[in-house]
Specification:
Layout lengths: L8 E5 L4 H13 L2 E6 L7 E2 L2 E4 L2 H8 L3 E4 L3 H13 L5 E3 L6 H13 L4 E2 L5 E4 L3 E4 L8 E8 L3 H12 L4 E6 L10 H10 L5 E7 L4 H10 L7 E6 L23 H10 L3 E2 L3 H12 L1
Parallel strand pairs: 1-2, 1-5, 2-4, 5-6, 6-7, 10-11, 10-12, 12-13, 13-14
Antiparallel strand pairs: 3-4, 8-9, 8-11
Helix pairs in contact: 3-4, 5-9, 7-8
């Protein structure tokens, strides 16, 4: 699995679009090494000092790129992400929402063949606090520290990060998994990484209704795969069964995927469960101080 640090050289695919341009500027402000952008047919242009190329391969030849972030509309996102994977970008962060599930399955399968880390789609991205970010999260709520964050939610990701910062703990690396039914990186892969990351002393896990990813994470924790303090918050406790709530992946079917099921599984694995988002930060501070 490949994440980021201050030395990661980033290409922004879709940099000439409104979202790509805006967030490329915010990433540079945070300290991310954004060295190139890609928009087919726009090669030779310049976006706020970032040179634009027609292909990722061309940009890589000029700048020695490491990773890509994709701000490409859903109809073209699969091609853009596959282009990045084939060019050797790692990780590939797919911000795009609304990508067909079939496209995501193809994308994730190809990434696994080439041992490429895909974050998303429909993700806020990832950030190594105080060093680099590839995503759309607000810069000001993150501060260098010792808590890792894994989240399926975007806004709760930022809110709990702010609480962690305000508790004086700060963050190490924070990753938004994405809210779609199929995504690249998952809880277990990240928990394995955080277990071995010397900068991370504890983890905040932010889940939501739908699917069984949190229950699988709880089984992994219970088996001894993750041993550091962990606090969790599960969104969607008031959701109506069978009705999609916000994210495409947030749908309860029968008894599976309910908030109670996820909270009970994580609690049984030894995690602290927050009734409110701020409770997660308070529980982690209690565990670490």
């Amino acid at each position: 699995m490949k994440l980021i640090n201050r030395d990661t050289k980033v290409v922004v695919q879709g940099v000439t679009g409104t979202q790509g341009r805006f967030h490329a500027a915010r990433m540079k402000e945070y300290g991310t090494t954004v060295v190139a952008g890609v928009t087919p047919g726009r090669g030779g242009q310049d976006v706020d000092g970032t040179p634009v190329y027609d292909t990722v391969v061309e940009a890589k030849e000029k700048h020695g790129l490491d990773a890509s972030i994709v701000f490409v509309p859903a109809f073209g996102a699969l091609d853009a992400a596959l282009e990045a994977i084939e060019a050797g970008m790692n990780p590939v962060v797919v911000i795009t929402e609304g990508i067909p599930v079939r496209d995501t399955i193809e994308l994730v399968a190809r990434a696994k063949q080439l041992d490429t880390t895909v974050i998303g789609p429909n993700t806020p991205g990832l950030i190594k606090a105080g060093e680099s970010k590839m995503g759309i999260m607000p810069n000001q709520v993150f501060k260098r520290g010792s808590v890792g964050i894994i989240s399926r939610s975007g806004t709760l990701f930022y809110e709990i990060a702010a609480h962690v910062t305000n508790q004086g703990l700060g963050e190490s690396t924070c990753v938004g998994l994405g809210g779609d039914p199929v995504v690249g990186l998952d809880y277990i892969e990240l928990l394995k990484w955080f277990e071995n990351d010397v900068e991370t002393r504890a983890v905040a896990l932010i889940g939501e209704i739908g699917g069984d990813a949190e229950e699988k994470a709880a089984d992994f924790i219970a088996s001894g795969g993750f041993t550091k303090p962990l606090a969790a918050y599960i969104a969607g406790r008031a959701a109506i069964p069978g009705k999609r709530m916000g994210h495409a992946g947030a749908i309860i079917q029968g008894a599976a995927g309910t908030a109670d099921s996820k909270m009970n599984a994580l609690r049984g694995a030894g995690a602290a469960i927050g009734e409110q988002p701020i409770d997660v930060a308070k529980a982690l501070k209690k565990a670490l101080v």
